[in-house]
Amino acid sequence: MKGRNNTPTSAGLVQGALLIAAASACVLIGSLTSSADAQPYTMKLSNDWTISGDLPDHALLVSLQGIANKQAPNLYFEYPPEWTFKFTTEVLEYYRDTRDIAFESLTGVDDALNKLADTADGFVVWDTDVRTSLMVAFTVAGLENAIVVTEDRIQDMEGRGLGMVEDFRGRFTDMNDAEIFEWALDEYWARCSKDFVFWMGGVHGDRMEAGIADFGIFKGGFFTDLSADPADTVEFALHNRILRDLDPDAVVMGWHSYAKDTEGQHVSLLSSYGLRMEGLNTLPNTSYSFQIPTTTGYKFTNNHTVGADEVVVPEDKVYIACIQTDAIGIGAWTKPGRGEIPYAWEVTMNWSWLFPAQLQFFFDTATPNDYFIGALSGPGYMYPKPIPQDRFVDLMADAQRLMNELDMRVFEVMDYSQGNRYFGNIDLTEEVVEAYYRAIPDAIGFINGYGPAHTNYLKDGRPMLSYDYYLSPTRPEDDAVLDLKELIAMNPVRPYYLTMHVRESSDIARVKNILDRVIADTGDGQEVEVVPLDRFLRMASHTPTFTPRVLQSVDTGDVMVGTGEED
User: What structural domains and CATH numbers belong to the chain?
Assistant: First the structure.
């Protein structure tokens, strides 16, 4: 797969990114000014996102949110405890306390419509018998400023003075997804944003978790869940059609469909165009948080424990560094135990301009033991091996800029373009490794992988270490303790640097209990030590007991084809 030929220069890309940030700032300032007399509302949502349950109401509400927030940050939802992103209540309280926002609670759908329906210009009806029609309706909602409803709400909408702009009942009967999306592309794609596109994937069947829909409507984006599996020839061709038409610095929002393809296929394909991913389809309240800036004069500050050039001499111990992945742990930040042990958090760096105040919430509520690192493989989620060479340098220059803005010194790389933690390879060639060292010169070190990998490197006192252990949230504690003890026994040379990936939904209290048991089982409790990641990397650079290793050769021409999902 070849990338676009009209690739900007490095300076052009950085300039473009700065223009995006400046434009975002103007939007923020304008929004806050125009909302001086607006009343912001909040409402609690249920965890029922089934077509036969609350999805019709939730689709209406998130479409109303995207429309109402076009005028000002007017509507914010509290998602249920079971939701993937578990911080919506804490962020709401943070906005209330730090921005003096007096939210008024809404009691239900009718109350929300009574307060905010006048921000819409019409309504669009989706067909509950054809799930895909809802994605098309979301696209129409953004273009026509229309509330998304089912047929039982038509009379209500008309009673509120709103006209029907599209009626999809029966329109797509007996059509497959490829036929529906090809029709939608022909009908609407020319009018849609080319800076953002929205993959409404994730769960399938009777359920759609449409958390990102408000932002897609806010941005006038195209919604789809087209497959990235080359075996799905028609959907794959349509998928490529969309990616080809996007602007070079566009952001692919949402997530792939668990029913159609794999994470590796999806991210590999967009990476082959030099595009970045920001997940998930469940990411909530984006149209609201996009408009809330950081506090005046705010500067993101990380919790460094060593100087960038400080020499740290290790002892003959096992050193463990814990890294929680996937968008600052997705929901782990608010779970028990945070702050009790040194812990690194993978940061989706584009939040600095997409949702600046939301990212400030994490920095402001961090403990001294919370350390932020840049991710993932670029300025957003990408895989390096498929990225066209003429795009790589510019993209990584943007990643370095974001790391500097966020005061981060460690960068994480992951590549599932030719395998995942179950099969294939997830290692990096020396060419890719060297490219990262050149492109991100301010990093004191790099982390590679998701599951355990074998790429280890050292250059100019900056190590790249792959994960040694993957701690699944479902792994029994007894088994995890035995796993770690076995790893320690298998690596007798000291110091031994054990890099541990903690999957996003784990809580730190559980991790601490596992590590405490490992430490206790060493006898005197001193052989194993959990240390901050930056100190860990400085020790590894001083005494590199790891074996340098890179992938010797790899065919980068094909997008990975496989089955299975990272869970």
Answer: 10-289 (no CATH), 318-542 (3.20.20.490)
